[in-house]
């Protein structure tokens, strides 16, 4: 049985790491790709739990025609200016930069330790990729990620014999995702039918006082949750994205990081 303490997800810390990447501000060309329709698992007010099936390896699918993620990136660019935004992004992606004092104060020493430990490891941070961007874009198109940021959680699985990838998704209208009991029950059923979990994905954001950009590291609550998912659905990897970059954390690290 999965234990759910995934309640406070706005717990993070600003960061450091090795690869320097550019902001992704190029406008998305008008897509003619058909939108993949979700299979609805549960709804409760504005909370939704659903999944999409896509062809394994498809890098051109669309979950919505709307451009919520692009709007967020553009709004941040307008708010900070391109140079300042790039500095902020660099501060999360250049090796050796320590968590700032104000972020350390906001989120606590143990969260800062986790962030610095992860950002000292090469190769964990990458520019947001297609599947991560599509999932965040879907939620950012429901609620503005700039004006009313919310958190989703997703689990990505694959089935080699069916040549499919399945994106399980749960989100509401709040700064933390719903517990997604139906979604996790469905995942456990699917594991018995040949599906294998690839990774968990959720997004981070920060309040205005912390420059809006979400920390690229799991919170201690996240780590606690990942440990449970490693037991319940054999979670091999967890990812956190802030709409520009994503960090991936192998399950072998879950027990080396601070948790509650
Ligand atoms: Zn989190």
Structure, described:
The protein is an alpha+beta fold and 260 residues long. The protein has one domain. Helix content is 31%, strand content 20%. It has 7 helices and 8 strands; from the N terminus they run ββααααβαββαβαββ. The protein has an 8-stranded mixed beta sheet, sandwiched between helices. Helix 1 crosses helix 2 and helix 3 crosses helix 4. It is globular and about 50 Å long. The N terminus is likely disordered. The site of zinc ion has 7 residues, from loops.
Question: Which stretches of 5+ consecutive residues score pLDDT under 50?
Answer: 1-23
Give the tally of β-strands: 8
The N- and C-terminal alpha carbons lie at a distance of: 19 Å
Query: What spatial order of strands do you see in the largest sheet?
Result: 1-2-5-4-6-7-8-3
Count up the helices. Answer: 7
Q: Using only CA atoms, what is the Rg?
A: 17 Å
Overall pLDDT metric? 88
Largest sheet: 8 strands, mixed
The hetero molecules present are: zinc ion
Count of separate structural domains: 1
Structural class: alpha+beta
What are the key terms here?
260 residues; alpha+beta; 8-stranded mixed sheet; 8 strands; globular; disordered N terminus; binds zinc ion
Q: How would you sum up this structure in a few lines?
A:
The protein is α+β, with helices and mostly antiparallel strands. It has helices spanning 68-80, 82-93, 101-107, 109-119, 130-142, 181-191, 220-233; strands spanning 39-44, 47-55, 125-127, 152-159, 164-171, 196-203, 237-241, 245-250. Helix 1 (68-80) packs across helix 5 and helix 3 (101-107) crosses helix 4 (109-119).
């Amino acid at each position: 049985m999965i234990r759910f303490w995934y309640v406070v997800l706005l717990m993070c810390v600003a960061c450091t790491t090795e690869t320097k990447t550019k902001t992704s501000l190029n406008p998305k060309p008008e897509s003619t790709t058909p939108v993949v329709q979700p299979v609805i698992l549960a709804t409760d007010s504005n909370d939704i739990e659903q999944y999409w099936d896509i062809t394994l390896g498809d890098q051109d699918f669309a979950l919505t025609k709307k451009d919520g993620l692009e709007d967020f990136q553009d709004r941040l660019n307008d708010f900070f200016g391109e140079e300042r935004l790039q500095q902020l992004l660099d501060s999360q992606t250049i090796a050796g930069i320590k968590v700032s004092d104000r972020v350390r104060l906001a989120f606590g020493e143990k969260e800062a330790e986790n962030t610095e430990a992860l950002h000292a490891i090469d190769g964990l941070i990458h520019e947001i990729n297609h599947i991560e961007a599509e999932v965040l874009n879907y939620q950012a198109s429901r609620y503005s990620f700039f004006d009313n940021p919310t958190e989703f959680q997703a689990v990505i699985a694959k089935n080699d014999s069916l040549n499919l990838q399945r994106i399980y998704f749960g989100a509401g209208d709040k700064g933390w995702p719903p517990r997604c009991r139906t979604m996790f029950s469905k995942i456990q059923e699917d594991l018995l039918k040949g599906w294998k979990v690839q990774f968990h994905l959720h997004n981070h954001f920060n309040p205005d006082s912390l420059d809006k950009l979400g920390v690229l590291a799991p919170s201690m609550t996240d780590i606690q949750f990942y440990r449970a998912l490693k037991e319940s659905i054999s979670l091999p990897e967890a990812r956190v994205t802030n709409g520009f970059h994503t960090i991936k954390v192998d399950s072998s690290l879950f027990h080396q990081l601070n948790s509650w």
